[in-house]
Predict the structure.
Amino acid sequence: MAKQKLFSLKRPRPRQSWNKHNVYNLFRYRLPQTTGRTFFQQKFRAKQETRRWNGEYLTERKWNSMFRHTLRGVIRMSPAEMAAGDGSAAVAGRGSGVDVVPRRAGSGTRVDAHERPIPFPQMTFAPLERRLDTAVYRALFASSVRQARSFCVHGKVSVNGKKMPHAGYMLNPGDMFSVDPMLVMRAIGNESTRAFRRLSEPAKDALETAIKSAARNPKSATFLKSADTTTLSSNADAEIDAEAFTKSTAETEPNPTTAEAESQAETTAAVVKAKEKDFKLPANWRSYLPRHPRWKIYDSWEPKRFMNLFAYIPRYLEVNHNICHAVYLRHPVARSGSAEIPNPFNNETMQLAYNWYLRRR
Amino acid sequence: MPPRLRPSSLTSTGNVIPQFIASDSPLLPFLLPLPLRNSLLALSRNPSHPPSSSSRQFSTSKPAAASSRYREFVKTPGRRNGFIEWMRDVAPLLNNPAPLRNIPTYMSYKPQPLPTLKGTSGSTPKREFDEQGNIIDGPKRAKRPKADEVDWERAMTEMSLSPFPTNPSFQAHPVISTEFREQIYLRIKAGRSVRRVSAELNCELERVAAVVRMKEIERMWGEQNRPLCTAMQNRVHALMPVSQWKALPQHESITDMRIHPATNNQLFLAVPESMPFSRKDAGAALGILPADQRMPHSELIEVERMRLQGKNIEEMVEVERQREEAEFKAAQEKQARVAAKKAAETVVETDRFEFRLKPAVTGHVGFRYGVPHDDRKRGVVKIPTRVVV
C-alpha cells in the first residue's frame, strides 16, 4: 500500500472513513468544477475525485482489471398489472403503446411507470463492493475500509466459517462473513469503551463457577493448587476490574521470604473476611476462564464519534451485530431513482468517471 | 479577460463583502466572527439588497465561478484550515451517538434541531367539532403541547435519509429490526417455505434465507453459553432507520427484476401492426425467458390472475398448496442428485485441503499436461474465488 496523506486538511480528499478529519473534509467537500473545462479535463478530474473515495489503496492497474462496463439495474414489476394483461398494450399500434390514462389536449406530461430514471452511473465502482474489505466496512464492522482491510490481512475475518486472509476476495452471493465481535466492538466503539476493563455479569458468574468446580475436583487438570490459595477479594456483585485483578494478583503473590508479602496477605485476608462472600481467586485465574463466554465482552457499549453520519447498511447486505455476522445477499443494483452504492458524488461526476474508464475515451 | 467597464483599482460592491462570504460555503456561518455573522444573517434576511460578488457594478448575474457549487476548493479560514473552529462549533451538532426514535442524523449542511410543536400549533390550537358543530371540550379534547415538545410526526416526515448532501440518489434504506428477524425465524421454523415467508413479510428471498442462517448461529451461541453483543446491536440500530415489526410489514419490494444485459442493445424487429406483441414474444425475440418467469415471486402473477377471475379463497389456497408441494418435491430430487454425485467421488481431507477425487480418463484431462502450477511459487498469490460452505 502506498503511503500517502489520507486526511490532509490543506488538500482535502474524500475518503471512506469515520476519522474526524475526514468528516470535516466531507463536510466542506465540493464536487469538481466542469465549466470551462474540456471534456477530457472533466473526465480526468471526475476520475481523480471518485478514485480517491473508491479503493485509493488499489493501483490503477488493479482497478482497471476489475472495471466492467455492464452496470446492474433492476425494474420493479407489478404482479397485478402483469396478471391483467400480457404486455401487448405497451407496444400496441405502431409501437408507442396505448395510453392507460388518455392524455388531455395541451397537457404535455406523460405519466410513466418509472418516473425517475435509474442512476446507472452510480454503479461505476460496483465491482469494488464485492471485495471482502469493503463489505466488512459496509456491514459496520470497521470504521474505515483500511481498517477492514487490516482485519482481513490479519486473519480476523472468515468467510463461510473459514479464515480468509485476502482482502481482495470477491464475495459471491450467499457468502457469509464474520469478524470477531470483540474486535468489532473495539473498532466501532467509543474511546471510553475501547479498553476492556469491565467483566460482564455472565462472565463473572462463569468464572466463579469454573474455579469452584475445579476446587471441588482435585483430579482435574485445573485443580486449585495449595500454593495459589491466596485469597483475593472477588465479590461477584462487585465490579471486577481486569487491571485491578492482575495488579492485586501480582501484589499478593505468595512469597514466604519477605515479611511484606505476608503482611499484605493478611490485609487481603481481612478484606475477604469483611466481605460476606468468601471466594478464593488463584493467581492463575485466567486459566480458569472458560472459552465461552469470554471475559472481555462488556455489557455497555457506546458508538464511535461521528458513527451516526455513516450508519447505513446497503440493501445487498444482511447484517447481524449480535454475532457480528453478515451475508452478502446479491450484487448491488441500481433501481429507479436510487442506487445501492454509498458515495458523495452526483450522477454527472460518476458519468464522467465511467466514461474515463471505458476503453475508447 | 472580458473588458472592464470599471477599473479594478476602485472598490466594487463585490469587494465590500469578501469573495469567500458570497460563496455558498456551508462552513461560513460558523467560522465568521460574531458581529460579521449577525450582519450577514441580516443581509440574507433582507432580500432587497442581495449580496453581490460581481466585480461589475451593473451586472445582476452572478459570475459563473462563484454561482456554481462546483467551485474549486479554497483555503478555509481559521486555525488548521478551520478544523479547530469546526470541531468546536459544528462537530457537536453533527455527532449524535443516540438519536431518538430511529431518526438518523446524517451529514447536512444545516444542522437543525428536531421540530417542536411550539411553532406549529402553539398560539392557535385547532378546535375540534362534533357532528352537531359544537366545540368538543373536556377530556375528549387533545392536550395543548408543551413549549418544547418534539413534533415527532413532522420529524418522521421531514427526516433526511440521504447521508451525502451532494448525492441525492443514495438513500439509506431501513434495516429489519431484531423482532422482525425473530418473526421470520419463527415462521421458517413452523415449516413454511422461504418463498412464502418472503411474500408474506415483503422481504427479499435472499434476505429471509440469510436471516434464518444467522439466527441459527445466534441460537448455537446461546447453547454454547457464548454472550451476544446485544448492547451493540441495540445502539447500532438506534442510529439508522429500522423497519419495525408490524402485522403487515412493507419492508421492501420483492418483485425487482434484474435488467437482462441482452435488453441493453437495440433490436429492430418487423412486427405487423395488427398483431399483438406480448412479453412472451419480446422474450423470444431477445432469446431470453419472458418477464413472467424471470421475475422473482412469479407465482404472485398467478395469484393475482385467480383473484381477477374471481376464484374463491379455498381454490386459491389449494393451488398454492399444490405448487409448494411440487417445489418441495423438485428440491428433494435435486438434493438426492447432489448427494449421489458426492457419494461417487472420494474425499481425502487434510488440514489444509479437501481433495475430491473423481474418476477420470487420461486422454480427457490432457489439456493440463505439462502446464506448471504457479500456486506454490513465491510471490504468486492465488486468491480463492469461492469458499464452499
In short: DSSP finds 17 helices and five strands in chain B. Chain B touches chain A through 108 residues (CB under 8 Å).
